[in-house]
Write a structure and sequence with these properties.
Helix content is 72%, strand content 0%. It is mainly alpha-helical and 103 residues long. Helix 3 packs across helix 4.
């Protein structure tokens, strides 16, 4: 039953080949060369929708995929960064202490 529910949530137009995924990555990478805002919020989603449109994916499905992909990338990179920072002895209180001593 879980598999059937999961398949119902994934639109059929997102079943793409490996070459389509590579083209999508190329579109996003080329677009990332342009100056963007912090975290590429907005530009990543736009470029993903643009890249998936090349393969006939609807804007709604492409935008949903873009948000999910961006969220997964953010969470994974931030989590690993926090783990390394904590492993190296990072303490958030130290930021405020160091900032107040510089004033």
């Amino acid at each position: 039953m879980k598999v059937r529910l999961a398949k119902q949530k994934v639109p059929d137009d997102l079943n793409l080949s490996l070459s389509a995924a590579l083209v999508l990555q190329a579109v996003i990478a080329l677009g990332a060369l342009l100056p963007t805002g912090p975290g590429e919020v907005g530009s990543f989603e736009y470029l993903t929708v643009l890249g998936l449109a090349l393969f006939g994916v609807s804007q709604e499905s492409a935008f949903a995929y873009a948000l999910l992909a961006h969220l997964c990338q953010f969470v994974s990179v931030t989590s690993v960064g926090l783990l390394f920072a904590i492993n190296k002895g990072f303490q958030p209180q130290g930021i405020y202490r160091d900032a107040s001593t510089r004033l």
